[in-house]
Amino acid sequence: MDAETPPPPPPAQSTAAVHPAIAPVSYLLGTWRGKGEGGYPTIASFNYGEELHFSCLPGKPVIAYAQKTWKIGSGEPMHAESGYWRPKPDGSIDVVISQSTGLVEVQKGTYNAENKIIKLQSQLVGNASKVREITRVFELLNGDLSYVVQMATNLTTLQPHLKAILKKI
User: pTM score, two decimals?
Assistant: First the structure.
């Protein structure tokens, strides 16, 4: 295979391919779609459509993450980000996210496998002139994946920025 030929797609996911380290958060695996709301003291409130995709690399202790949002009505792209989630057996989780804006997040947090809640706190927000801190909380409730993102800037304290409810498709 030469450098210009892409590798073949990975085999279809099966539960047998899920690394034991990601089993406690394997409920994330798949594609989620829904609607969200955003706002902040320095911007006008807005609504958006969203899709999240979580996938595993067979035999690896990591989840690949991709997210995209669009304007409801027109479908015009708004935001995209991708990264990796690495849960650990002790209930901690490391997450790296690269946003389409050039901003990069390194987050650490915890997961509760029984209650299906993941709490993330930024350790580093890179390439950001204004953003100082980001938190994300994901929760699976009645089969829906919800999240809340809070943000602090050099002008504001930590406060709600985004929230959404997504259904697995």
Answer: 0.88
